[in-house]
Amino acid sequence: MIDAIGRPQSVLVLGGSSEIAQAIVAGLVPARCKTVVLAGRPSERLDAAAAAALAAGATTAEVVAYDTTDIAGTPAVIDAAFDTFGDIDIVVAAAGALGDQAALEADPLAAADLITTNFTGLAAGLLAVAGRMRRQGHGRIVVISSVAGDRARKANYIYGSTKSGLDAFAQGLGDSLVGSGVGVTIVRPGFVKGRMTEGMDAAPFSTTPDAVASDVIGAIASGANVVYSPGILRWVFAVMKLLPRAIWRRMPA
Amino acid sequence: MSTTPRPKSHRTELTGWGLTAPTAADVVHAVHPSIVDDAMAAALAQADHPGPRSANRGIVARGLGRSYGDAAQNAGGIVVDATWLDGIHDIDLETGRITVGGGVSLQSLMERFVPLGWFVPVTPGTRLVTVGGAIAADIHGKNHHVDGSFCSHVTSMTLVTPTGPHVLSAHSDPDLFWATAGGMGLTGVVTEATLQMVPVETSYMLVDTERAVDLDDVMDKMLHGDDDYRYSVAWIDCQSTGSRLGRSVLTRGDHARLEDLPARLRSNPDKATAFVPRQLARVPLTPPSGLLNPLTVAAFNEMWFRKAPTRQLAKPHHMTGFFHPLDGVGDWNRLYGPKGFLQYQFVVPDAEGETVRRIIERLTEVKLASFLAVLKRFGPGDPGHLSFPMPGWTLALDLPVGYPTLDTLLDDLDAWVLEAGGKIYLAKDSRLAPETFRAMYPRVDEFSTVKRRVDPDGVLQSDLGRRLGLCGPGAP
Hints:
The complex is a heterodimer of chains A (253) and B (476). Chain A is built from nine helices and seven strands; from the N terminus they run βαβαβαβααβαβαβαα. Chain A is α/β, with parallel strands linked by helices and 253 residues long. Chain A has one domain: NAD(P)-binding Rossmann-like Domain (Rossmann fold, 3-Layer(aba) Sandwich). Chain A has a seven-stranded parallel beta sheet with strand order 3-2-1-4-5-6-7, with helices on both faces. The radius of gyration of chain A is 17 Å and the shape is globular. The termini of chain A are far apart. By secondary structure, chain B is an alpha+beta fold. Chain B has two domains: 117 residues, 2-Layer Sandwich (Uridine Diphospho-n-acetylenolpyruvylglucosamine Reductase, domain 3), CATH 3.30.465.10; 230 residues, Vanillyl-alcohol Oxidase, Chain A, domain 3, CATH 3.40.462. An eight-stranded antiparallel beta sheet of chain B has the order 16-12-14-13-19-20-18-21. The radius of gyration of chain B is 22 Å and the shape is globular. The chains are: A alpha/beta (253), B alpha+beta (476). Chains A and B meet through α3 of A and β1, β2, α12 and α15 of B.
């Protein structure tokens, strides 16, 4: 159960190798979150994340094989997680890839795969999660979106559009769950320095997985619907969205 | 296939009085006791159904929702609205023994029986609690040092459990009776109870009020004077620091006899025994951010302290103002804003008064405003496995949620309370850690053994129970 101060006792991560998700788990475990389930493509990195959760004090930290592009298999993975581990207080939807815009433009099938990973597959997973949470009558779904979804940009519009879609989906999902005991928190990080952005020049207001995790944990506690990370991006993007397209188009990569 | 028809229910989001941690449950209105049986059967059918343990969502009763935390919530399961069980089944005005439905409120009992010369044996700071809830929390009042807690005055009760209804008393089935006393509803639904009321001549109290300059002063006055009064409580200003730390207003009194009252009441016995509670005001909506911040609370505390007489003896006060001052303001819990609030109530042994001081000091250090902190000295506890009262000092503090380090701050206070041999009151709790709970309530295994006897399938569940590991998939 999530307590009065917003501390959950269990978490399921979709995309368990995500650095942001791992930072969220690392923040939650010492604050009473004793059950950690990491769903993702089997890898050493995923196993290491589970081991880190155990070392931090989790009493259960399990790895579950999950691939967002395996849409047919997704509902069964979600059901099995809820059946095996009991009530799950927090689900973090963190699966996603950035992709290389130029390469994706040249390879429509690869672009479609990215869209499946970031949006189509995750949307199916979120619907399965929402169904289970509605039944258990409580919980919070944290969807890792991106400021890239606030306005698609020439330099990364394929990734940006997947986050736009996911973000819009999560907004609607949140509204549909009002009154069910279940809430949805949408997280819109800016440029996060980490594995995903290795070798790229950091954008203004760049942040780190730990900083995003800290904002997410605050949003879980307060039950916020939308959180920008860092918070100033809420205002930066309020302006960005108003820029004339001719200027927006010329924004540097 | 089960043949039990599931009683009509509505999925509803519920919170406790603190307005925190909302969860949704299927609320069943128990308009007749048989509906409690039906709801219990439906919960049992769900548990019997093959499938994962998490599919057994269980059932718990809810009264007037005055528990601050998640005691009367059951996410995804059934919540029986027991306030419909409001019948008065039997009265004996010679002995003051009454048999009533579990959903009858203490307010209703006062309205009916005070004019007939009988008062409830124990009342908390609000009269808007049900008899069933009073048993489930084994509530205490200002008279605990003399009269003990609520269940000591319950001569028998009907408890509907998954293994059927039990009519029990502390003598016929002491294990189940005392597991139910303070068991937070996790042993069954109280549909009926017989109470021993206390005789009163009027609806007035004779009250002595005095100010205490600091914590030592008020504790000294309570240690040496409480035995002369049936009712005693101190309000502590938790914002005063230094030499004024713990300055208080101590109010103590007893029921007034007719001859104690002024002539205008003495000559009008109907007026002298009238109990007509009035709501003076209501908080119409939740203000966007709490109106109760350090500034407003400081102003209120200063006003409350100044308005109290330095010393005033034998002043007649009506019961409503003496026992339930906040009931005059409807929905006052909204004042804390949309994030809600929690109440931190602990008890420590008599010799650990220093822990009370440390805790008040800590709260003044971080400038965490508590509106109306209440100090009370308990007498002996009763045999309830999870019953809260034990001899010593109990302090109750209302704290707004949203203060940035409230989580770790209260965890630290938990550790001090535990170290002092004390515990946290479950009816107020919304945040205790399972392992701290087990350390504070060492008889929890005894409780669980009795619970399993009447609930082998683990059907009786609540959010509080799940959070503390008392029930649900995580339970032992």
